[in-house]
Amino acid sequence: MANHVSSLKRARQTVRKTAVNRANKSRVRGSLRSLREAIQKGDVKAAQEQYKATASALDKSVQKGILHANTASRYKSRLNARVKALATQAA
Which portions of the sequence form the region Disordered? Predict the structure, then answer.
């Protein structure tokens, strides 16, 4: 356990920041899950709408330092390819 005043403060800050980071990461994972479920169901319109929300959540997570920019870009690229494939398959 921390003994110095500064280390006690850092411990408190870590607890708060961990909670915020966990909530943000959970939000991104939930958005990804919703998009994958929409793709799995084959609902093109829902998948396209959910992709917009997911891309936004990924971009926000990059700004907050939750994900690396390349990781978010990779997710968006792969998910967009799946949504486009679903749209062309349905058409």
Answer: 1-31
Summarised one tens digit per residue, pLDDT across range 38-85 is 999 999 999 999 999 999 999 999 999 999 999 999 999 999 999 999
Task: Measure the CA–CA gap between 84 and 39, rounded to whole angstroms.
Answer: 10
Give the H/E segment covering residue 4.
none
Report how far residue 26's alpha carbon sits from residue 87's, in angstroms, rounded to the nearest whole number.
Answer: 28
Residue 10 inside a domain? The answer is no
In a domain, 14, yes or no: no
How far is CA 3 from its chain centroid?
37
Domain tally, the chain: 1
Q: Is residue 58 in some structural domain?
A: yes
d(CA 9, CA 44): 49
Q: Kindly tell me if the per-residue pLDDT of 88 is higher than 80.
A: yes
